């Protein structure tokens, strides 16, 4: 097994790693852009252990990415989203899976809210867009 994968399983646990991998796969299959994993575990007072952040150029694609994440996680892991917000205008849709929170932004909103800058102390991993797990 790859050392990086072993380290991630040790850090997050196999269940959480499967959730993250499934989310990333679902995003990539809908052509999500600039996928980033923010590891919040080492930060005090963080609301969860991970953020998975991505963006798309249109609100139609934002909704399609969020829908696909929800469908793939349910299909592959039999896990329902705890809470979903942002469907009204699809500029920023949030999917809450408890320990992992997914943020799907319309590109301009992502720049405006700069979530990665707000959580700059978190360990950040940029995920290759051409690699589908």
Verbal overview:
By secondary structure, the protein is of the alpha+beta class. The protein has a single domain, classed as 2-Layer Sandwich (Beta Polymerase, domain 2), CATH 3.30.460. Helix content is 42%, strand content 25%. The chain has five helices and six strands, in the order H-H-E-E-H-E-E-E-H-H-E. The protein has helices spanning 3-12, 14-29, 59-77, 107-113, 115-118; strands spanning 33-39, 50-56, 83-85, 92-96, 100-106, 123-126. Strands 3-4-5-2-1-6 form a six-stranded mixed sheet. Strand 3 (83-85) and strand 4 (92-96) form a beta hairpin. It starts with a helix and ends in a 7-residue tail after the last strand. The model has no long low-confidence stretch (mean pLDDT 87).
Keywords:
alpha+beta, globular, 133 residues, six-stranded mixed sheet, Beta Polymerase, domain 2, 6 strands, 25% strand
Question: Would you spell out the secondary-structure blueprint of this structure?
Answer:
Elements: H1 3-12, H2 14-29, E1 33-39, E2 50-56, H3 59-77, E3 83-85, E4 92-96, E5 100-106, H4 107-113, H5 115-118, E6 123-126
Parallel strand pairs: 2-5
Antiparallel strand pairs: 1-2, 1-6, 3-4, 4-5
Helix pairs in contact: 1-2, 2-3
* Count, helices: 5
So what's the overall shape? globular
Poorly predicted runs: none
- Give the neighbour order of strands across the main sheet: 3-4-5-2-1-6
Average residue-wise pLDDT: 87
Oligomer: single chain
Count of β-strands: 6
CATH topology: Beta Polymerase, domain 2
CATH architecture: 2-Layer Sandwich
User: What is the SS-derived class?
Assistant: alpha+beta
Strand content is 15-25%
Distance between the first and last residues' Cα: 15 Å
Question: Which radius of gyration do the C-alpha atoms yield?
Answer: 14 Å
**CATH class type:** Alpha Beta
SSE string, helix = H, strand = E? HHEEHEEEHHE
Helix content: 40-55%
Major β-sheet profile: 6 strands, mixed
| Annotated CATH homologous superfamily | Beta Polymerase, domain 2
């Amino acid at each position: 097994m790859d050392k990086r994968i072993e380290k991630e399983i040790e850090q997050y646990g196999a269940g959480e790693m499967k959730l993250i991998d499934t989310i990333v796969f679902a995003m990539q299959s809908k052509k999500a852009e600039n996928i980033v994993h923010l590891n919040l575990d080492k930060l005090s007072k963080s609301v969860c252990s991970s953020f998975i952040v991505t963006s798309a150029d249109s609100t139609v694609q934002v909704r399609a990415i969020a829908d696909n994440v929800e469908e793939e996680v349910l299909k592959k892991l039999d896990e329902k989203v705890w809470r979903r917000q942002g469907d009204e205008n699809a500029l920023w849709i949030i999917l809450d899976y408890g320990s992992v929170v997914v943020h799907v932004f319309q590109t301009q909103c992502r720049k405006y809210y700069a979530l990665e800058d707000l959580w700059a102390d978190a360990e950040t991993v940029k995920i290759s867009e051409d690699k589908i797990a």
